[in-house]
């Protein structure tokens, strides 16, 4: 398994640290400092693997960022290189031509993406498409307003509690905070865009969702209540 | 939007931190913001809590303390809002490790979220559990995770499987729960779930022999899965560079390795498949090579057919020629693991391995060195040593020690001739003398010593080497030793095995002198040179006082003697270091005494050399034993008595040295108690020169036991009247005694 992954700049600034083994904050700081020093001292013509403490370290530099993984003795270094590359591809697809600045200003997104790709130090999904889809859906959920999945009714934005029917209210898995608004709009012409599969609708209950994520689509559906 | 007017949004905070020009400025910005964050947490603003925590997580990454955010993580995780949960769980993974008390408190939230039915939320909970779940949490939540293994959503299943992997790692007993579902999970079509399942089975097998036995039954199924993967067409979704799902392939191969290890039947079942993968995998890109590499590791670890093993080693050999240095690295590492078990197969790639010594990358050349050393045998030792010597000359310093000792070891094991052995060792010492192990010197001297026919050859070669360079200490030491032992062979005649070398005695002595004086020479080296000189003095001049030669505790300065031995004594004159300091005749005598008394142990001093005056040469000094001198015409003088301790002086004026007086101080003890820590010091007037030899001992035994003697050498060039002051310190009858007195009634013959 992978023990940890670090992203850091040429100046030794840490941009991401994911630990898959319980270690104290103090110990982590020490290891990060030490490893950064070792990796930054490597010359460009050297290979991507080195031995450090009792672990193997696989690192690769992409523009101004070093991606650095510590793996165990029986792990395959070459496939770890593929793993690093896959992660970079995911970041690239998500941010659109990713650069270090994206990762600095959206560090939490970098973590979220990593958490859809790896878990506990192992790969959880080998399909780029699948991982990106999961991120999109999570981003959708992370809308500014509350967001629930209603069985059979698709996704609903929070709305005014008063406006929602008693049945619909009962069906909600979490209680509505009084005063929250449920979208209620007249039917408008549907925009022809890709509809994410977590949202479904049937003709009677149409829901409106607006999404503010960067490169993701905007879908307008309307909701109608009894 | 913002809790207080001066609290920043996350991205603004990041911007401001980046704009800080100094560390102090950055600290200021962060401390200010952290104060706001703390206030916000205290006020308990639920709407913006996630934003505040996000900011806190950012500064935490920069190295600043964030412990006050731990409880906020809990609150966020418990919130119904997805945004809150997302940041809360992230915070938990970054800030809460097993050691924190708050850690356990998230167990309940996780439990709730696992059963909530919203995939994304379940995903968050599982992810956090697998990243930071303590053993206790794993035990608590194992059944929840087990249920999720059967969830309709593949998204949840794939995460649940990997959470199970973590749980097994933390609490191996949980394999009772997670072993049964594996059989069904192996039928998965979803690559992610399948991959997780393989990982889970691997983990189970590694921890339990019973599990291992159980899963061996599934080898045919695994073989089938891998075969399908490899032979079905190109599926864009999971392929990398035309290789079908290399991550999954590698994982399956690894599991097969564990299952096939030490198991004939399983190994046989997978043989064909391994051959197929080994031959059909596209090797143009890293993804294919990763799979190939794993295949090779598996082949070498199980009971594979001989042909398959050779194929595997050959693949590694091809890897060695790959332009990608990462590939070369794994090849070298793997070949190193195989060099014992498959020696002849690896030997075939020796030339390529040796080429890798020239790698500019240290980690590669180090591996190449280890492998090269492992490949040395009696038939290739000459060629290999040649290559390794070349490497030694140009390799980085931290590899020199290993290379040097490796060559010496190989030479010891496989040396075809003694002369070759000596030559090789010599060359190593000349190239990397400072990096050889301590026993190299001893080994070489022993080697040379035992090769009688090569004494002449050795001493000549060593002499030439030494003449060129006296800085490499081990070389200098061996050379000095050799010259000392076989100096006669060096000076006489010629040796047919080396170039004609005419060496004069003076040259040899001059060289040894240079070694002695060089600031580069370690004390041990000086010792060797010294011993050599002394040996030469007997071997070259037939004086058989070897026993005395070894007894010197202190090295004394000596003067030169008659002309015939002038050359020899030129270097002997430098040998000794004492501290002769003339004394004031009167009041300051005590002080001067103390100055004088650096003598016995103060060889750290470097006083100016004595002018060679007519006096005893080194040999004569050495000739004089510490026993009482033969009876001299000058009468003895009793100078001191106290409580049974008596001090007697006896005098000798050696003929031929009119200014020299030798005094022997003899201490006897007729009392009932031993005199211990006995020290006698002396002082003379300024125009005299005094030297004290080390006493025979510092204990004067009771009841008239063996007396203690000490020799004083006094030079009196001006023939002035002799005055002598003595200072005694000792312990007697449990008391420490100090006595200072001037010796009266010195016979006039002592100085006239």
TrEMBL record, chain A:
Locations listed in the record: Cytoplasmic vesicle membrane; Golgi apparatus; Membrane, Clathrin-coated pit
Recorded coiled-coil stretches: none
GO cellular component terms, A-Z: AP-1 adaptor complex; clathrin-coated pit; cytosol; terminal bouton
UniProt GO molecular function: clathrin adaptor activity
Gene that encodes the chain: AP1S1
Source superkingdom: Eukaryota
PROSITE patterns assigned to the protein according to its UniProt record, in alphabetical order: CLAT_ADAPTOR_S
Keyword tags: Coated pit, Cytoplasmic vesicle, Golgi apparatus, Membrane, Protein transport, Transport
InterPro entries in UniProt: AP1_sigma, AP_complex_ssu, AP_mu_sigma_su, Clathrin_sm-chain_CS, Longin-like_dom_sf
Quaternary state and interactors: Adaptor protein complex 1 (AP-1) is a heterotetramer composed of two large adaptins (gamma-type subunit AP1G1 and beta-type subunit AP1B1), a medium adaptin (mu-type subunit AP1M1 or AP1M2) and a small adaptin (sigma-type subunit AP1S1 or AP1S2 or AP1S3).
Residue ranges constituting the AP complex mu/sigma subunit domain according to the UniProt record: 1-141
GO biological process: intracellular protein transport; response to virus; retrograde transport, endosome to Golgi
Name of this chain's protein: Adaptor related protein complex 1 subunit sigma 1
Pfam hit, one: Clat_adaptor_s
Membrane topology: Peripheral membrane protein
Database matches in SUPFAM superfamilies: SNARE-like (SSF64356)
Gene3D superfamilies, A to Z: 3.30.450.60
Claim: Transport is one of the keywords in the record: yes
CDD domains (alphabetical): AP1_sigma
Homology family: Belongs to the adaptor complexes small subunit family.
TrEMBL record, chain B:
Keyword tags: Coiled coil, Cytoplasmic vesicle, Golgi apparatus, Membrane, Protein transport, Transport
Chain positions covered by the region annotation Disordered: 559-584
Coiled-coil regions, chain positions: 3-30
Location relative to the cell: Cytoplasmic vesicle membrane; Endomembrane system; Golgi apparatus
Domain GAE residue range list: 632-747
Family stated for the protein in its record: Belongs to the adaptor complexes large subunit family.
InterPro entries, alphabetized: Adaptor_Complx_Large_Subunit, AP1_complex_gsu, ARM-like, ARM-type_fold, Clathrin/coatomer_adapt-like_N, Clathrin_a/b/g-adaptin_app_Ig, Clathrin_app_Ig-like_sf, GAE_dom
Name of the featured protein: AP-1 complex subunit gamma
The keyword Acyltransferase is annotated on this UniProt entry: no
Gene Ontology, cellular component aspect: AP-1 adaptor complex
Membrane topology term: Peripheral membrane protein
UniProt-listed SMART domains: Alpha_adaptinC2 (SM00809)
